[in-house]
Task: structure prediction
Amino acid sequence: MSVHTVKEILASLRRKESKPSEWTETALRMIEQHDPTIGAFLTVDGERALERARRLDGEAFDGALFGVPYALKDNICTRNLKTTAASRILESYIPPYDATVAQRLAATQGVLLGKTNLDEFAMGSSTENSAFQLTRNPYDVKRVPGGSSGGSAAAVAAGMVPFALGSDTGGSIRQPASFCGVVGLKPTYGRVSRYGLIAFASSLDQIGPFTRSVEDAAFVLQAISGHDERDSTSAPQDVPDFVRGLEGGVKGLRIGLVTGLDEHGVDAEVQAAVGKAVQTLQDAGAEVVEVHLPHLRYAVATYYLIAPAEASSNLARYDGVRYGRRAAGQSLAEMYENTRSEGFGMEVKRRIMIGTYALSSGYYDAYYRRAQQVRTRIREDFEQAFKRCDVIVMPTTPTTAFPLGEKVDNPLQMYLNDIFTIPANLAGLPALSVPCGVSSEGLPIGLQLLAHWWDEATLLRVGHTYEQARGFAMPLPRMGA
Amino acid sequence: MGYETVIGLEVHVELKTKTKIFCGCSTNFGDPPNTNVCPVCLGHPGTLPVLNRQAVELALKAATALNCQINQDCKFDRKNYFYPDLPKGYQISQYDQPIGEHGYVEIEVDGRRKRIGITRVHLEEDAGKSMHGEDGRHSLIDYNRTGVPLIEIVSEPDIRSPEEARLYLEAIKSIMQYCDISDCRMEEGSLRCDANISLRPEGSTEFGEKTELKNMNSFRNVQRGLEFEVQRQTQLLEQGQAVTQETRRFDEATQTTVSMRSKEEAHDYRYFPEPDLLFVHIDDAWLDRVRAELPELPAQRRARFEQELGLPAYDAGVLTAERAVADYYESVVAAGSDAKTASNWVMGDLLGYLNAQGLTVEASPVRPEQLAGLIAQVDKGTISIKQARDVFKLMCESGKDAEVIIKEQGMEQISDEAVLVPIVEEVIANNPKSVEDYRAGKQKALGALVGQTMKATKGKANPAVVNKLILERIGG
Result:
């Protein structure tokens, strides 16, 4: 198996050593060969992808991602292409419009291959909450790929596509990137338009790329960033040249190490790998300082009030009236009840109930309002921390990929897996997961970097510098037991 | 024991924007069902609202015209409930930071001014319209109205009678129309009204148990529904029974109210800040501009008509209720007519004709200058006031100027003494009995002579001139 980065594919196409259709064919072959085992894709749009690629064969190299095949998480709406959010309730939903990111990628002349699996409505950390199928970790098919963007992470890790988009509400890009040994980036809240992303928690959701290198992440981020008038929360912020910003090293940059992470049960091998990565950055000229995030310990609890509260409202539209699944009922109330009972899975129902409760009259102040106040504290923690450093370093996850089924019946255990990823969402910060080693069991370990609001440039530069300096290449996945 | 009625109104007013509040769809009323819709207003997965600034502008104008304090940092909230005509399962509204608070309007009750407090004015989106099939098995939904911008105007419980409620509602409508905020057509649903009503023993300061009244689709029905409710609650209380807190619906057919749902079934709307929209900041410049651009409001105009034009209060009230009528009236006066004469014409013949034809004053076939022209013809003595009313009818039908019609109809009044003297002398010569009678003191005989002269001139003679000429010849 040989895999290529976006950069390599673009170089080959630019030199006319290959044609777009060849890359699409290769990708489709890889999917055909490995996806029956991995289960990354919910929909493969092969014929149309080939058609698009063949049309590009005859055209001059033009767009920024000309001829590069890619996949989208199946909660990103694509016109005339089924988009399910891995939910029974949207089983046969075909959007009448394209998400802004889908439009922007189409404008760069990339080739969309299909839609990837996820935890239903992006609620989960293992992709096991998909209503349709399991996705397996390419490094160990008995283990989860992480979630909720497990399909996109696994598709890139398995070499089926050089990049894919996911969405990150509490770690749903970075955690699976870490588990699957690829690069995952959650941009600053407001950097990428959410228009067309099926909402889970509107104030936390952000779309970002999975790639095989930090440089590729910069390519893709460039293509999808920028203000969109259809999303009021997308910021009218200048988009710097991320690719050009990669060079320059880390000399003189201050790397913040968060104190007191031990209490969160970080696996020794993970700790060692992250420690080594910090050493690598130090060797490259970075200065290490300690930072405190005193409210970090409340992040998971805060998140599990705010996210479900927003979700309980965001998912109200799935009522069987206008689109999607409708169950029969003798009355309107019964139709609603049956539709939603049959259409939603267990975890989605759990979160709708938690969220409904948190917003209920009489409980609002104690739960939702309090959670928003803690959220502000967490944000302030980061403001303080970034006065002392340029980038904060943490493990992406406390452990490596866990076995399929291990946490399915223990939602709290599952939630705690997101302890290090959730803070960036609550604060709206950009964060990156870069592979930093492999455990004794051959499982990837992720290094997480967080930067100041809107400073993806520094984030990517540090990630890129580390990647160049780390002194090893990630082993290719075994794709088998 | 006597009871005091306590009423508060919640009035919904659709704003006159071209497009919806959160998407680019048209707000046009009466288009075929589900033609003014898009993925955003249909609540498709992944879509997001984008605020229409014009809706904020109109809401700001309304709140200002209703004397509200403006929240210069206002925000939107989600009001969560399930209903098929609400595509997202929540309505984007304003909860704890509405655009305006603590305002008031003035009404006139039995010749006395009364101030009705306004608790709040907030901006929100309208829902669609459900139509229930006659078979009882199917319902159809039209989403054209989904996302049309609305303001909700909530009054204080300051209203003390069904009549006051109607007057308050008319005052709101008038202000909205003056400011060009809304059409306020109750029959099209661009103005809707719910009422909270309770009774309490006279002199009591505590509120009684209230009912909420819905589905009153005309100004008259608002008053009738409330009147019925006063009766119903009075009866209950007099029989020693309690009023149940509930929502009741006005039934037009029976002119009564019927129970819809009790308080136990009341919703918990689970309001929370809308995360898809930013805070709206209304800066001083914006607020100042809206204040400066506010037109003269009905109450001010009414006072001016009374004070500057010397109109009776009744006339001023009728003429200023609708901005277009007041504008029309002022144009007539500006074209040279006497204020009271013009008022009589506009309130009487003009509005009478327009109402009979179902026309708005904007669609009047007679323009203000034309009406002024007609009045001038009367003033000059060309035609009598009686003739003028006939001319007005012809003007309405033809759109022609008064002068043209008077010529066409040969209606000019004869005031020329040189023409009238021979006719008068002939009448006197032919009616010696009447002349004798008059000289003997019978005043009525003068009328007979004038009548004969009028008859001889086919009614065109100027009666005043004829009178004078006859008296000169037979008078003492």
User: Anything to note?
Assistant: The CA atoms of residues 77 and 274 of chain B lie 5 Å apart.
